[in-house]
Every structure is written in C-alpha cells, then in structure tokens.
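Entry 0007
Protein: Conserved putative Glucosamine-1-phosphate N-acetyltransferase
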Amino acid sequence: MKITLAVLAAGLGTRFGSDKQLEGVYNGNTLFDYSIYDALEAGFDDVVLIIRSEIDELVRKHFESRFKGLPVSFVYQDKMAPKGI
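Output (structure tokens):
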C-alpha cells in the first residue's frame, strides 16, 4: 500500500511575520525538510504539498534541490478562509 504525506502549507504567516514554509530553523533545514525527512523514515512514499500559487516557484526550487527523485505533487489553495475560522 502506498502512503502519501500531505503537508498543509498555504498559510499566510501573518502572526509569524513572513512565509514560514521555507524559513531555516537549523543548519539551513526548513520545517518542510524535517517533515519530509521524518515521513520518509516512517515509510511514506510520496508527498503532496498544499501551498499558495504565489510561492510555487520558491517551493519547487527548494524541493528540487533537496529531494531529487522523490515524487512531490503541488496543490494550490489560494482562497483563504476569513480570520478566526
């Protein structure tokens, strides 16, 4: 059975102050990286990233440079719910 990791990362990062998806946290690794490393170790087969289309190019470049050969799909969530929902 194939297991897919879905990463919800379309948020605006308003409380954080910027897009936190690609913010380095340790040794240049991002939260994305740690999520994927852990998922691969746990036996996941591929990844679906749910992102905003405006950060697509940055996210693709990041993943292509770090996870060559890993099946990654991109899904766009551009319409945001009102704050508090």
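Curator remark: Helices lie at 31-41, 56-66. The chain is about 25% helix and 25% strand.
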